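TASK: fixed-backbone design
INPUT:
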């Protein structure tokens, strides 16, 4: 995954909610997945009489499928509040050594092991293989108790509750392994290698979908419904992300998810775009009355642009938006549109068919819509674009780029605050000459900003991964440093996210068995293969907050085993109390509220139930042998004595290492079997056998 983005070219945050295509095109899907405002049963009945399918309702919100050909679609009840057509884009052996996570599973200095027994864990994702051996129980059947398959635009919801139904299912998507990877981190239980998950005895409810908002939230309802039916607490994992939105928890998605959070603990990814410039925060003044930025396509070429950028004021005062075209050849602005500036709601549609000046530079359409959101009383202007700019810039030969680039100009009266975000998946913000660079200060996923969810960031936990055919593959991550892509932000109400940061770069976990078979080119970097009863199973590597989030979710299942009455609010309090803040680069905002300490958190949970637990040494060093060196990671940062012994028992090396990590050179050792011991000034030694 390039620069820690989601698995197989998705937000390994999965990126949520691209805008609907603006240009006219044939769409065979019969339904538009939506969240509608529905005040009462009478309104719900009327919608259903018109052909609307309502899957679930909470408070005044309905998860609905609206027929695409419904007459009067634009006047449909709730349309003004509708999150229409928004869609998500979708190695544990080392991660479990940090901050005592493995000691939860072993029960070290605890009343016993905590493995998620008696707890339901669920998720909504894509690319899930329910019959992977990682999810096989002692009876030989899948531990997946309920599997729900969604195809929202097609109006399909298939619920599989029986073992035979689940056993007969293959996968929802052979071109992805993200869902299997995530599920194993939460609850994988295979003991044949070191890549099992954090809650290996939990019951699993899995939902797969095309990741529209209505499908994701309906999946959460499925998980809650099953947990309620068996009388067990639940944890929900959402390794999904979205960057457009108010970032204050007021969206319909956040509101609905907060209600889900009253019945289950919801863990949601912070996002992976904090190393890209797709956001900007500004307070307008007499001196700074406008700001400009260019828009770039994800591939950097700008020949085809598709996506959305939105700007939110902090109150009802408008932020004006003007569409620009930038000529890369001579560095000038060659086109300026009228501005959508309020205070009344305004819509501006620019089309190359109708605007002959614009047609000189692009072919397509741009829509600008400014209004006061009824959900939070804040002014928002949304800019959606879908166009092509075919003329190349002659000076870019090796990396072709379009000559003409779309730009946006934002302006407002002094004292107005604005938050700007591009979608981060299809389009990014880039500097306009003479103006400040866009940044990433609001890079946290918008759907992770609710008040009743746990938002999770990631730190790097390994620099290399094993390859099943032998040797190691370098993954270019410095262990025990916060990942540069991990999303973060300080919200308009002062909340700092993420709530916690956990290992996510890189993680070895189970892979959809059908993925490497459909993509044989992946086989050279597969991490492990097991053949059981004539079927092959695979383990693969990925990185992102998509991986750190299930690490936390699985651990919280162990916490729930210790105290089934835990609420989301109590979990957030425990995180605030037990997160460690002893890490390098302490001023980096990507650290959010601190790093996750699984063991200390469980001790705090047990204390709340009146159970006294010991204090295991959660900071024992970890040894990673890779090629010609050993990386020693030491969370306590005290001085370590590293000794290497030959198979005959003689000491062949003795060095001292201090600080949070250090490398030991092994290149001079002849072939053979060795034992490395790491002894600190305090605490038990760590021993590892390795072969040269």
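OUTPUT:
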């Amino acid at each position: 995954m390039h620069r820690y983005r989601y698995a197989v070219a998705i937000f390994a945050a999965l990126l949520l909610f691209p805008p609907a295509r603006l240009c006219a095109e044939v769409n065979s899907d019969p339904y538009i997945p939506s969240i509608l405002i529905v005040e009462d049963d009478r309104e719900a009945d009327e919608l259903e009489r018109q052909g609307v399918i309502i899957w679930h309702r909470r408070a005044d919100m309905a998860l609905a499928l609206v027929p695409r050909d419904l007459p009067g679609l634009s006047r449909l009840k709730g349309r003004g509040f509708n999150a229409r057509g928004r869609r998500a884009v979708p190695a544990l052996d080392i991660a479990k050594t940090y901050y005592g996570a493995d000691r939860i599973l072993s029960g070290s200095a605890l009343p016993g092991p905590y493995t998620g027994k008696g707890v339901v864990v669920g998720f909504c994702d894509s690319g899930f293989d329910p019959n992977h051996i990682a999810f096989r129980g002692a009876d030989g059947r899948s531990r997946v108790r309920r599997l729900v398959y969604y195809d929202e635009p097609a109006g399909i919801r298939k619920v599989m509750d029986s073992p035979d139904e689940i056993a007969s299912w293959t996968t929802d998507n052979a071109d992805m392994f993200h869902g299997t990877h995530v599920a194993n981190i939460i609850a994988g239980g295979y003991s044949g290698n070191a890549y099992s998950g954090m809650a290996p005895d939990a019951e699993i409810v899995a939902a797969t979908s095309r990741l529209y908002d209505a499908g994701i939230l309906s999946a959460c309802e499925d998980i809650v419904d099953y947990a309620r039916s068996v009388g067990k607490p639940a944890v929900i994992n959402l390794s999904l992300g979205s960057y457009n939105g108010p970032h204050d928890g007021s969206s319909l998605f956040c509101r609905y998810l907060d209600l889900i959070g009253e019945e289950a603990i919801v863990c949601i990814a912070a996002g992976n775009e904090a190393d890209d410039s797709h956001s900007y925060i500004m307070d307008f003044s007499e001196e700074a009355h406008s700001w400009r930025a260019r828009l770039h396509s994800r591939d950097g070429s700008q020949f085809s642009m598709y996506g959305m950028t939105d700007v939110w004021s902090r109150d009802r005062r408008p932020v004006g938006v003007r569409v620009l075209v930038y000529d890369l050849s001579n560095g000038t602005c060659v086109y300026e549109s009228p501005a959508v500036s309020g205070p009344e709601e305004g819509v501006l549609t620019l089309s190359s068919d109708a605007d002959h000046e614009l047609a000189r530079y692009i072919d397509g359409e741009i829509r600008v819509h400014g209004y006061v959101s009824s959900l939070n009383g804040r002014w928002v202007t949304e800019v959606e674009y879908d166009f092509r700019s075919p003329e190349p810039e002659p000076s870019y030969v090796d990396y072709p780029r379009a000559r003409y680039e779309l730009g946006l100009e934002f302006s407002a009266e002094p004292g107005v605050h604005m938050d700007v975000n591009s979608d981060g998946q299809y389009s990014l913000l880039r500097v306009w000459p003479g103006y400040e660079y866009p940044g990433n200060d609001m890079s946290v996923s918008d759907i992770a900003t609710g008040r009743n969810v746990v938002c999770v960031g990631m730190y790097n936990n390994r620099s290399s991964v094993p390859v099943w055919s032998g040797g190691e593959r370098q993954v270019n991550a410095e262990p025990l440093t916060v990942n540069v892509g991990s999303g973060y932000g300080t919200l308009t109400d002062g909340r700092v996210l993420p709530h916690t940061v956990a290992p996510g770069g890189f993680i070895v976990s189970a892979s959809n068995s059908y993925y490497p078979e459909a993509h044989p080119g992946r086989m050279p970097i597969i991490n492990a293969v097991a053949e059981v009863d004539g079927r092959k199973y695979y383990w693969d590597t990925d990185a992102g907050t998509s991986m750190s989030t299930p690490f936390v979710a699985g651990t919280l299942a162990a916490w729930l085993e210790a105290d089934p009455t835990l609420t989301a609010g109590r979990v957030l309090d425990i995180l605030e109390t037990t997160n460690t803040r002893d890490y390098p680069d302490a001023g980096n905002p990507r650290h959010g509220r601190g790093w996750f300490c699984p063991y200390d958190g469980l001790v705090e949970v047990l204390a709340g139930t009146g159970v006294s637990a010991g204090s295991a040494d959660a900071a024992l060093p970890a040894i990673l042998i890779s090629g010609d060196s050993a990386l020693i990671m030491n969370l306590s940062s005290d001085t370590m004595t590293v000794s290497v012994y030959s198979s005959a028992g003689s000491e062949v090396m003795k060095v001292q290492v201090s600080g949070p990590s250090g490398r030991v050179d092994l290149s001079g050792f002849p072939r053979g079997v060795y034992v490395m011991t790491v002894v600190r000034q305090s605490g038990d030694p760590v021993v590892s056998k390795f072969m040269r």
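COMMENT: The radius of gyration is 26 Å.
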